[in-house]
Write the C-alpha coordinates for this entry.
Amino acid sequence: MKTVRFGVIGCGLMGREFASASARWCHLKGMSARPEIVAVSNRSEAPRRWFTDHFPSVRQSTSDYRELLTNEDVEAVYIAVPHHLHREVYGATLGAGKHLFGEKPFGMDLAANESILEAAKARPDLLVRCCSQFPYYPSVQVIGQMIAKSAFGRILEVNAGFLHSSDLNPDKPANWKRIVEFNGAYGVMGDLGMHVCHVPFRAGWRPRNVRAILSNIIPDRPDGKGLGGRVETATWDNATLLCEAETPDGGHFPLTLRTARIAPGESNTWYLEILGTEASVKFSTRNPNVLHVLEYDGGRQDWREVCVGYTPVFPAITGGIFEFGFTDAIQQMWAAFLTELVGEKLPDALLARAATPEEAHLSHLLFTAALRSAEQSSTETVSASHP
Protein backbone atom coordinates (compact mmCIF):
# COMPACT_ATOMS: atom_id res chain seq x y z
CA MET A 1 0.00 0.00 0.00
CA LYS A 2 1.41 3.37 -1.03
CA THR A 3 1.83 5.97 1.71
CA VAL A 4 1.03 9.60 0.85
CA ARG A 5 2.68 12.05 3.23
CA PHE A 6 0.42 14.94 4.23
CA GLY A 7 0.82 18.32 5.80
CA VAL A 8 -2.12 19.90 7.64
CA ILE A 9 -2.52 23.68 7.61
CA GLY A 10 -5.17 24.64 10.16
CA CYS A 11 -5.33 22.24 13.10
CA GLY A 12 -8.89 22.87 14.28
CA LEU A 13 -12.05 20.76 14.17
CA MET A 14 -11.83 19.45 10.60
CA GLY A 15 -8.07 18.98 10.76
CA ARG A 16 -8.60 16.67 13.72
CA GLU A 17 -11.34 14.82 11.79
CA PHE A 18 -8.88 14.13 8.98
CA ALA A 19 -6.30 12.95 11.50
CA SER A 20 -8.83 10.61 13.09
CA ALA A 21 -9.80 9.20 9.69
CA SER A 22 -6.14 8.55 8.88
CA ALA A 23 -5.56 6.84 12.22
CA ARG A 24 -8.26 4.23 11.50
CA TRP A 25 -7.43 3.67 7.84
CA CYS A 26 -7.51 -0.08 8.48
CA HIS A 27 -11.30 0.34 8.64
CA LEU A 28 -11.30 0.49 4.84
CA LYS A 29 -10.88 -2.61 2.68
CA GLY A 30 -8.79 -2.92 -0.45
CA MET A 31 -7.28 0.56 -0.45
CA SER A 32 -4.17 1.07 -2.57
CA ALA A 33 -2.96 4.11 -0.61
CA ARG A 34 -3.06 5.52 2.90
CA PRO A 35 -2.39 9.00 4.34
CA GLU A 36 0.34 9.75 6.85
CA ILE A 37 0.44 13.13 8.55
CA VAL A 38 4.06 14.26 8.80
CA ALA A 39 3.73 18.04 9.28
CA VAL A 40 1.27 20.48 10.85
CA SER A 41 0.96 24.24 10.87
CA ASN A 42 -1.21 26.47 13.01
CA ARG A 43 -0.60 29.93 14.42
CA SER A 44 -1.47 28.75 17.95
CA GLU A 45 0.61 26.03 19.56
CA ALA A 46 -2.12 24.19 21.49
CA PRO A 47 -3.92 22.80 18.40
CA ARG A 48 -0.58 21.62 16.99
CA ARG A 49 0.23 19.91 20.26
CA TRP A 50 -2.87 17.72 19.90
CA PHE A 51 -1.38 16.36 16.68
CA THR A 52 2.12 15.83 18.05
CA ASP A 53 0.68 14.15 21.18
CA HIS A 54 -1.40 11.68 19.17
CA PHE A 55 0.59 11.13 15.96
CA PRO A 56 4.26 10.11 16.23
CA SER A 57 4.49 10.47 12.44
CA VAL A 58 4.38 14.29 12.80
CA ARG A 59 7.96 15.43 12.42
CA GLN A 60 7.36 19.14 11.79
CA SER A 61 5.20 21.51 13.82
CA THR A 62 5.32 25.17 12.83
CA SER A 63 3.38 28.40 13.24
CA ASP A 64 4.34 29.44 9.69
CA TYR A 65 2.61 27.50 6.92
CA ARG A 66 5.32 28.56 4.47
CA GLU A 67 7.83 26.46 6.39
CA LEU A 68 5.56 23.45 5.95
CA LEU A 69 5.34 24.09 2.19
CA THR A 70 9.13 23.95 1.87
CA ASN A 71 9.19 20.52 3.53
CA GLU A 72 10.18 18.05 0.83
CA ASP A 73 8.62 15.16 2.78
CA VAL A 74 5.15 16.70 2.30
CA GLU A 75 3.47 15.48 -0.89
CA ALA A 76 -0.06 16.74 -0.31
CA VAL A 77 -1.68 19.33 1.94
CA TYR A 78 -5.04 19.54 3.66
CA ILE A 79 -6.05 23.15 4.41
CA ALA A 80 -8.74 24.30 6.83
CA VAL A 81 -8.18 28.01 7.51
CA PRO A 82 -10.53 31.03 7.67
CA HIS A 83 -11.92 32.04 4.30
CA HIS A 84 -9.94 35.26 3.97
CA LEU A 85 -6.72 33.18 3.90
CA HIS A 86 -7.79 30.79 1.14
CA ARG A 87 -6.42 32.80 -1.77
CA GLU A 88 -3.00 33.21 -0.19
CA VAL A 89 -2.55 29.75 1.32
CA TYR A 90 -4.15 27.69 -1.47
CA GLY A 91 -2.18 29.61 -4.08
CA ALA A 92 1.08 29.15 -2.19
CA THR A 93 0.41 25.43 -1.77
CA LEU A 94 -0.10 24.94 -5.49
CA GLY A 95 2.92 27.12 -6.22
CA ALA A 96 4.98 24.84 -3.98
CA GLY A 97 3.92 21.82 -6.06
CA LYS A 98 1.75 20.13 -3.42
CA HIS A 99 -1.52 18.31 -4.08
CA LEU A 100 -4.37 20.20 -2.40
CA PHE A 101 -7.51 19.16 -0.56
CA GLY A 102 -9.08 22.39 0.69
CA GLU A 103 -12.13 23.35 2.66
CA LYS A 104 -14.98 25.21 1.04
CA PRO A 105 -15.75 27.79 -0.20
CA PHE A 106 -12.37 27.75 -2.01
CA GLY A 107 -11.87 31.49 -1.66
CA MET A 108 -13.63 34.20 0.32
CA ASP A 109 -15.23 35.70 -2.79
CA LEU A 110 -15.42 35.21 -6.55
CA ALA A 111 -12.14 37.04 -7.24
CA ALA A 112 -10.26 34.90 -4.71
CA ASN A 113 -11.83 31.74 -6.08
CA GLU A 114 -10.86 32.58 -9.65
CA SER A 115 -7.31 33.29 -8.52
CA ILE A 116 -7.15 29.82 -6.94
CA LEU A 117 -8.54 28.22 -10.09
CA GLU A 118 -5.93 29.97 -12.21
CA ALA A 119 -3.21 28.62 -9.91
CA ALA A 120 -4.69 25.12 -10.25
CA LYS A 121 -4.85 25.38 -14.05
CA ALA A 122 -1.16 26.31 -14.07
CA ARG A 123 -0.37 23.00 -12.33
CA PRO A 124 -2.38 20.28 -14.12
CA ASP A 125 -0.03 17.70 -12.59
CA LEU A 126 -1.52 18.36 -9.14
CA LEU A 127 -4.79 16.98 -7.79
CA VAL A 128 -7.02 19.75 -6.42
CA ARG A 129 -10.32 19.00 -4.70
CA CYS A 130 -12.82 20.71 -2.38
CA CYS A 131 -14.07 19.05 0.80
CA SER A 132 -17.73 17.98 0.89
CA GLN A 133 -18.54 14.79 2.76
CA PHE A 134 -22.33 14.40 2.81
CA PRO A 135 -22.69 12.78 -0.65
CA TYR A 136 -20.77 9.81 0.76
CA TYR A 137 -23.71 8.71 2.90
CA PRO A 138 -24.90 5.40 1.38
CA SER A 139 -28.43 6.74 0.83
CA VAL A 140 -27.04 9.67 -1.14
CA GLN A 141 -24.92 7.30 -3.18
CA VAL A 142 -28.15 5.45 -4.07
CA ILE A 143 -29.64 8.78 -5.14
CA GLY A 144 -26.56 9.32 -7.30
CA GLN A 145 -27.15 5.96 -8.98
CA MET A 146 -30.75 6.96 -9.68
CA ILE A 147 -29.64 10.28 -11.19
CA ALA A 148 -27.12 8.50 -13.43
CA LYS A 149 -29.84 6.13 -14.67
CA SER A 150 -32.34 9.00 -15.27
CA ALA A 151 -34.69 7.15 -12.90
CA PHE A 152 -36.58 10.29 -11.86
CA GLY A 153 -38.09 11.01 -15.26
CA ARG A 154 -38.72 14.70 -15.66
CA ILE A 155 -37.42 16.60 -12.64
CA LEU A 156 -40.24 18.54 -11.01
CA GLU A 157 -38.49 20.08 -8.02
CA VAL A 158 -35.31 19.73 -5.95
CA ASN A 159 -34.83 20.94 -2.37
CA ALA A 160 -31.54 20.75 -0.51
CA GLY A 161 -30.30 22.25 2.72
CA PHE A 162 -27.86 22.24 5.62
CA LEU A 163 -29.18 23.45 8.96
CA HIS A 164 -27.53 24.30 12.30
CA SER A 165 -29.12 25.71 15.45
CA SER A 166 -26.31 26.61 17.85
CA ASP A 167 -26.38 30.31 16.91
CA LEU A 168 -29.92 30.69 18.21
CA ASN A 169 -28.31 31.70 21.52
CA PRO A 170 -27.65 35.47 21.22
CA ASP A 171 -25.02 35.24 23.97
CA LYS A 172 -22.85 32.78 22.09
CA PRO A 173 -19.52 34.60 21.55
CA ALA A 174 -18.65 35.62 18.02
CA ASN A 175 -16.03 33.62 16.14
CA TRP A 176 -14.38 34.32 12.80
CA LYS A 177 -17.32 32.88 10.82
CA ARG A 178 -19.49 35.74 12.15
CA ILE A 179 -17.05 38.50 11.15
CA VAL A 180 -17.30 39.63 7.54
CA GLU A 181 -13.59 40.50 7.26
CA PHE A 182 -12.71 36.85 7.86
CA ASN A 183 -15.74 34.92 6.60
CA GLY A 184 -16.62 37.16 3.65
CA ALA A 185 -19.83 38.73 2.40
CA TYR A 186 -21.39 35.34 1.61
CA GLY A 187 -21.94 34.66 5.31
CA VAL A 188 -23.59 31.29 5.88
CA MET A 189 -23.51 30.53 2.15
CA GLY A 190 -19.72 30.49 2.19
CA ASP A 191 -19.68 28.36 5.32
CA LEU A 192 -22.29 25.72 4.38
CA GLY A 193 -23.28 26.34 0.77
CA MET A 194 -20.95 23.95 -1.07
CA HIS A 195 -22.39 21.06 0.96
CA VAL A 196 -25.84 21.94 -0.34
CA CYS A 197 -24.77 22.55 -3.95
CA HIS A 198 -22.60 19.47 -4.39
CA VAL A 199 -25.21 16.91 -5.50
CA PRO A 200 -27.27 19.23 -7.76
CA PHE A 201 -24.12 20.48 -9.46
CA ARG A 202 -22.72 16.95 -9.93
CA ALA A 203 -26.05 15.95 -11.45
CA GLY A 204 -25.57 18.68 -14.06
CA TRP A 205 -28.41 20.83 -12.75
CA ARG A 206 -27.15 24.37 -13.23
CA PRO A 207 -28.90 27.38 -11.65
CA ARG A 208 -29.88 29.89 -14.35
CA ASN A 209 -31.08 32.54 -11.93
CA VAL A 210 -31.71 33.09 -8.23
CA ARG A 211 -34.01 34.99 -5.88
CA ALA A 212 -32.31 35.14 -2.50
CA ILE A 213 -33.63 35.90 0.97
CA LEU A 214 -30.70 36.55 3.33
CA SER A 215 -31.14 37.16 7.05
CA ASN A 216 -28.80 38.71 9.61
CA ILE A 217 -30.79 37.69 12.67
CA ILE A 218 -28.39 38.51 15.51
CA PRO A 219 -26.35 41.57 14.42
CA ASP A 220 -23.97 41.62 17.42
CA ARG A 221 -22.58 39.11 19.88
CA PRO A 222 -20.23 38.98 22.89
CA ASP A 223 -16.65 39.49 21.77
CA GLY A 224 -15.47 36.48 23.79
CA LYS A 225 -12.97 38.45 25.85
CA GLY A 226 -14.98 38.16 29.06
CA LEU A 227 -15.20 41.93 29.67
CA GLY A 228 -18.80 42.45 28.56
CA GLY A 229 -17.92 43.86 25.16
CA ARG A 230 -19.86 43.06 22.01
CA VAL A 231 -18.82 42.92 18.37
CA GLU A 232 -20.79 43.48 15.19
CA THR A 233 -21.60 40.21 13.40
CA ALA A 234 -22.44 41.50 9.94
CA THR A 235 -22.58 38.14 8.20
CA TRP A 236 -25.73 36.43 6.98
CA ASP A 237 -27.05 33.88 9.50
CA ASN A 238 -29.58 32.21 7.17
CA ALA A 239 -30.00 32.04 3.40
CA THR A 240 -32.79 30.70 1.21
CA LEU A 241 -32.10 30.62 -2.53
CA LEU A 242 -34.90 29.90 -5.00
CA CYS A 243 -33.32 29.09 -8.34
CA GLU A 244 -34.54 28.15 -11.77
CA ALA A 245 -32.26 25.27 -12.65
CA GLU A 246 -31.74 23.66 -16.03
CA THR A 247 -30.97 20.04 -16.84
CA PRO A 248 -28.41 18.91 -19.44
CA ASP A 249 -31.25 18.07 -21.85
CA GLY A 250 -32.71 21.57 -21.67
CA GLY A 251 -35.42 21.05 -19.06
CA HIS A 252 -35.86 23.38 -16.12
CA PHE A 253 -37.30 23.17 -12.61
CA PRO A 254 -37.33 25.03 -9.26
CA LEU A 255 -34.27 24.36 -7.11
CA THR A 256 -34.42 25.59 -3.50
CA LEU A 257 -31.19 25.71 -1.50
CA ARG A 258 -31.20 26.51 2.23
CA THR A 259 -28.29 27.18 4.54
CA ALA A 260 -28.93 28.20 8.14
CA ARG A 261 -26.96 28.74 11.30
CA ILE A 262 -30.18 29.53 13.15
CA ALA A 263 -32.65 26.70 12.52
CA PRO A 264 -34.36 25.89 15.84
CA GLY A 265 -34.05 22.25 16.81
CA GLU A 266 -31.52 21.32 14.15
CA SER A 267 -28.08 20.14 15.19
CA ASN A 268 -26.26 19.29 11.97
CA THR A 269 -29.00 18.39 9.50
CA TRP A 270 -28.21 17.90 5.82
CA TYR A 271 -31.14 16.97 3.59
CA LEU A 272 -32.00 16.35 -0.06
CA GLU A 273 -35.38 15.94 -1.77
CA ILE A 274 -35.85 15.20 -5.48
CA LEU A 275 -39.33 15.01 -6.97
CA GLY A 276 -39.78 13.56 -10.45
CA THR A 277 -42.51 12.23 -12.73
CA GLU A 278 -41.28 8.62 -12.41
CA ALA A 279 -39.54 8.54 -9.03
CA SER A 280 -38.96 10.73 -5.99
CA VAL A 281 -36.62 10.51 -2.99
CA LYS A 282 -36.15 12.15 0.40
CA PHE A 283 -33.12 11.85 2.68
CA SER A 284 -32.01 13.55 5.88
CA THR A 285 -29.07 12.93 8.19
CA ARG A 286 -31.60 13.06 11.03
CA ASN A 287 -32.32 9.43 10.09
CA PRO A 288 -29.22 8.35 8.18
CA ASN A 289 -30.16 4.72 7.69
CA VAL A 290 -33.41 5.47 5.84
CA LEU A 291 -34.03 6.57 2.28
CA HIS A 292 -37.62 7.47 1.40
CA VAL A 293 -38.49 6.42 -2.15
CA LEU A 294 -41.61 6.80 -4.28
CA GLU A 295 -41.68 5.05 -7.65
CA TYR A 296 -44.60 5.81 -9.96
CA ASP A 297 -45.70 3.64 -12.89
CA GLY A 298 -49.29 4.80 -13.22
CA GLY A 299 -50.60 3.04 -10.10
CA ARG A 300 -50.60 4.05 -6.43
CA GLN A 301 -48.29 6.80 -5.26
CA ASP A 302 -46.88 5.33 -2.07
CA TRP A 303 -43.73 6.36 -0.23
CA ARG A 304 -41.67 3.46 1.11
CA GLU A 305 -38.73 3.36 3.50
CA VAL A 306 -35.52 1.68 2.34
CA CYS A 307 -33.02 0.80 5.08
CA VAL A 308 -29.81 1.24 3.14
CA GLY A 309 -27.47 0.18 5.94
CA TYR A 310 -23.68 0.40 5.92
CA THR A 311 -23.07 0.12 2.17
CA PRO A 312 -20.48 2.80 1.35
CA VAL A 313 -18.92 3.42 -2.04
CA PHE A 314 -15.51 2.39 -0.64
CA PRO A 315 -15.92 -0.99 1.16
CA ALA A 316 -15.18 -1.15 4.88
CA ILE A 317 -15.01 -3.80 7.60
CA THR A 318 -18.34 -2.72 9.14
CA GLY A 319 -21.22 -5.07 8.37
CA GLY A 320 -24.05 -3.89 6.16
CA ILE A 321 -26.62 -4.20 8.96
CA PHE A 322 -25.08 -1.31 10.89
CA GLU A 323 -25.58 2.44 10.52
CA PHE A 324 -23.36 4.93 8.76
CA GLY A 325 -22.38 8.28 10.33
CA PHE A 326 -20.54 11.58 9.95
CA THR A 327 -17.06 10.23 10.70
CA ASP A 328 -17.62 7.46 8.16
CA ALA A 329 -18.53 10.06 5.52
CA ILE A 330 -15.33 11.97 6.29
CA GLN A 331 -13.24 8.85 5.81
CA GLN A 332 -15.04 7.92 2.59
CA MET A 333 -14.34 11.40 1.21
CA TRP A 334 -10.67 10.97 2.02
CA ALA A 335 -10.66 7.53 0.42
CA ALA A 336 -11.91 9.17 -2.79
CA PHE A 337 -9.14 11.76 -2.67
CA LEU A 338 -6.38 9.22 -2.00
CA THR A 339 -7.65 6.86 -4.71
CA GLU A 340 -7.60 9.61 -7.29
CA LEU A 341 -4.28 11.00 -6.07
CA VAL A 342 -2.38 7.76 -6.67
CA GLY A 343 -3.95 7.29 -10.09
CA GLU A 344 -6.28 4.41 -9.24
CA LYS A 345 -9.70 4.13 -10.89
CA LEU A 346 -12.54 5.50 -8.78
CA PRO A 347 -15.65 3.36 -8.30
CA ASP A 348 -18.13 3.74 -11.14
CA ALA A 349 -20.50 6.04 -9.27
CA LEU A 350 -21.70 9.57 -10.01
CA LEU A 351 -20.82 10.77 -6.52
CA ALA A 352 -17.54 8.90 -6.01
CA ARG A 353 -15.26 11.80 -6.95
CA ALA A 354 -14.75 14.56 -4.37
CA ALA A 355 -16.05 18.03 -5.19
CA THR A 356 -14.06 19.69 -7.97
CA PRO A 357 -12.71 23.24 -8.24
CA GLU A 358 -15.15 23.83 -11.10
CA GLU A 359 -18.09 22.91 -8.87
CA ALA A 360 -16.76 25.25 -6.18
CA HIS A 361 -16.50 27.98 -8.84
CA LEU A 362 -20.14 27.50 -9.83
CA SER A 363 -21.11 27.93 -6.17
CA HIS A 364 -19.29 31.29 -6.18
CA LEU A 365 -21.18 32.41 -9.28
CA LEU A 366 -24.42 31.47 -7.55
CA PHE A 367 -23.58 33.13 -4.21
CA THR A 368 -22.39 36.31 -5.93
CA ALA A 369 -25.70 36.51 -7.78
CA ALA A 370 -27.52 35.80 -4.50
CA LEU A 371 -25.86 38.82 -2.87
CA ARG A 372 -27.09 41.04 -5.72
CA SER A 373 -30.56 39.52 -5.45
CA ALA A 374 -30.82 40.17 -1.72
CA GLU A 375 -29.56 43.73 -2.07
CA GLN A 376 -31.98 44.63 -4.87
CA SER A 377 -34.91 42.32 -4.00
CA SER A 378 -34.63 40.99 -7.53
CA THR A 379 -34.19 37.81 -9.49
CA GLU A 380 -30.60 37.74 -10.74
CA THR A 381 -29.00 35.77 -13.56
CA VAL A 382 -26.25 33.40 -12.48
CA SER A 383 -23.23 34.26 -14.61
CA ALA A 384 -21.93 31.69 -17.07
CA SER A 385 -18.41 33.15 -17.03
CA HIS A 386 -15.37 31.04 -16.29
CA PRO A 387 -11.90 32.06 -15.09
Remarks:
- Residues 336 and 353 are 6 Å apart (CA to CA).
- The chain is about 30% helix and 25% strand.
